[in-house]
Amino acid sequence: MPDRIVPLAISQANSQRKQEHLDIALNNDVEFKEVHTGLDDYQFIHQALPEIDLTSINLSTPLFGKMLSAPLVISSMVGGIDAAARINRNLAQAVQEMGVAMGVGSQRCAIDEPVTASSYEVRNIAPDILLFANLGAVQLNYGYGVSECCQAVEMIGADALVLHLNPLQEALQPGGNTNFAGLLSKIEKVCRELSVPVIVKEVGWGISDTVARKLASVGVSGIDVAGAGGTSWSEIEGQRVHTKGGANITRTFASWGIPTAESIGMVLRGAPEITVIASGGIRTGLEVAKAMALGADAAGMAALLLKAASISEESVIAAIQKVTEELKVAMFCIGAASIKELKNTSLLRGKTRG
């Protein structure tokens, strides 16, 4: 397929948008203010006699055909600009070292402008990792099809493709792509014809049981809930707009979304057999443990590791090590020696409200 011809003004606007997103996410307070992940509403029942050895706890778990050393996914974040190349390489080197999984940011930029593809290419430094390609599902209504999805996968040697859903972000973003009509049948076509699994991911407002059921029915292999409570893209877009009216609209939706813990439950009710990645405001190994005990198969993390990756590979490794050690301690204190035992525990309870 010939390269797309992208007008210079559009190319510059895309680069500016990505750079603004990155700068705001790294330097500003963009957390949800009124919505929380819901994970704090749960607590484990401490076992003073766990009857296991902390050093024998096994965090390994299978995910999409590969064995991870821990149930962690570095969620899709950046790409398409010079700053992203260094961040993605730091992430990939750390992921290779730690044996977890990673997704890249939206590859739309690289599909339209192949010169930017190098900012996503990490397979040469991370040959063994579980790696996810990424495109916006809405692009299937703007000229993209199976060919572009294949191109995204082949570009980085990915093991699966993430199609992200972001209707609220597109609605709030100046010039956003807001035609989400008829996307389900197009997602089904991608699932049917692509040679790797397709995962559907929100970007921070959660997936409902109704949507999960629809996605499972058309062949989606996994769902990343990306619930509300972590980074708020309405907040990020609000800091990008330059009109009072636009900023007021983004503030109206500051509390929008399904909290992460609730979204995990909804997805499992809607699609009980599907692989579930829990993300959205997960910052600690204890929160990973809660997400797994609620039924997730892995947990995704973004903001914490983005900031580490902007510093160095070593900072990313240190952050992942902290999370895995916290996860082990949580499992030790409930007597769960493996991820399977953690997922099957009966020791997670909703907190009693006074």
Mean pLDDT: 90
Give, in spatial order, the strands making up the sheet with the most strands.
Answer: 4-5-6-7-8-9-10-11
Question: Approximately how much helix is present in the residues?
Answer: 40-55%
The residue ranges in which pLDDT falls below 50 over 5 or more consecutive positions are none
Secondary-structure content class: alpha/beta
Assign the CATH class. Answer: Alpha Beta
Alpha-carbon Rg, integer: 20 Å
The CATH H-level superfamily is: Aldolase class I
Describe this entry's structure for a reader.
The protein has 14 helices and 12 strands. The chain is of the alpha/beta class and 354 residues long. Strands 4-5-6-7-8-9-10-11 form an 8-stranded parallel β-barrel, surrounded by 7 helices. A two-stranded antiparallel ribbon has the order 1-12. It is globular and about 60 Å long.
